[in-house]
Amino acid sequence: MGFFEKLKTELSKTKESFDSKINNVFSNFRKVDEDFLEELEEILIMSDMGFETSTKIVGNLRKRIKRENIKEEEDVKQALREEIEAIFDSVDSSLKIDTKPSVILVVGVNGVGKTTSIGKIANRLKKDGKKVVIAAADTFRAAAVEQLEIWANRVGCEIVKKEEKHDPASVVYDAINRTKETGADVLIVDTAGRLHNKQYLMDELSKINRVIDREMEGLDKEVLLVIDATTGQNAINQVKAFKEETNVTGLVLTKLDGSSKGGVVAGIVEENKIPVKFIGIGEQIDDMETFNSKDFSKAII
Questions:
Q1: Bridging pattern class, strands 186-190 and 102-107
Q2: Res 189: pLDDT
Q3: Measuring CA to CA, how many Å separate 245 from each of 202, 207, 225, 293?
Q4: Beta strands of the chain (E only): which ranges?
Q5: C-alpha 248: how far from its chain's center?
């Protein structure tokens, strides 16, 4: 399957949630009137887009319907798709790793798929001709280092690691030096899964950031927050918490196949002005793609 077909499969639950409710609205009303728009707004809110984002989308849609004299179901759906696309396109989703070397710091709570995402991103970069080093800075769990090492071996890139419980910032320091020594293009840094109410882990993240900023001053840096789509509105709380501790530059979406809550992504982007940079569309090593707003909106509506 191509990317769009995989994306449609992954987003089938979200699409079913959106489409069934939108179709119900059309079955109840003979024309696109204010009652329809109010019910559509309710649907978007219930689909985890959030109140402010849903209100904005429907407000813009209301103006378009009047301006363009939109009456048909498919025309309304297309206009709705375009309003959702506009939210994603309001921020730049391109990956900024133009300097040599550059660094990608990957953060997120436990269980969202950070390790897998790192492996898949490393694989994409290697296919693009980049030499990649991975820093195993999650020293709180021995299994985390082992899992990351498996991915590094699969992709064919170097990994810098230390024994369990070692200072994560020192692992990052060594990995930066190794990246420079070997002339690598990109350093990807794994971090321990952090709950936003565990301040000591957030403090550790700040320390890692300081090391990167000092040792790689002036070089491109991406901070990617991995989000589990199944968590819905809780993902918004995670974004807010991580934004307080580090300058999150992009999102990585995972587990869309198990979620009817894919709509939360639009709310996160609109409220935080943080772009989606990667989207996981399956279990295989190649199932990580750069985000495409048109494909995403078309896949859910």
A1: parallel
A2: 97
A3: 7, 10, 12, 28
A4: 102-107, 132-136, 158-160, 186-190, 221-228, 250-254, 276-280, 288-290
A5: 11
Question: What SS3 class is residue 224?
Answer: strand
Cβ burial, residue 74 (10 Å; 0-12/13-18/19+): exposed
- Distance CA(58)–CA(113), nearest Å, equals 33
Convert the pLDDT of each residue in 237-286 to its tens digit: 888 888 887 899 999 988 766 545 567 788 889 988 999 999 887 777 88
Helix (H) or strand (E) holding 66: helix 51-68
Task: Specify the pLDDT at position 14.
Answer: 56
Sheet bearing 158-160, strands edge to edge: 158-160, 132-136, 186-190, 102-107, 221-228, 250-254, 276-280, 288-290
Indicate the pTM of the whole model. 0.88
Provide the CA 195 distance to its chain's centre, in angstroms: 17
Angle made by CA atoms 102, 221, 146, in degrees to the nearest 5: 75
Residue 194 has pLDDT above 80, yes or no: no
Is the alpha carbon torsion for 83, 222, 169, 144 positive or negative?
A: positive
Place of tokens 């990667």: 278
Range with the lowest mean pLDDT among 135-144, 165-174, 197-206?
197-206
Per the omega criterion (within 30 degrees of 0), is the bond before 101 cis?
A: yes
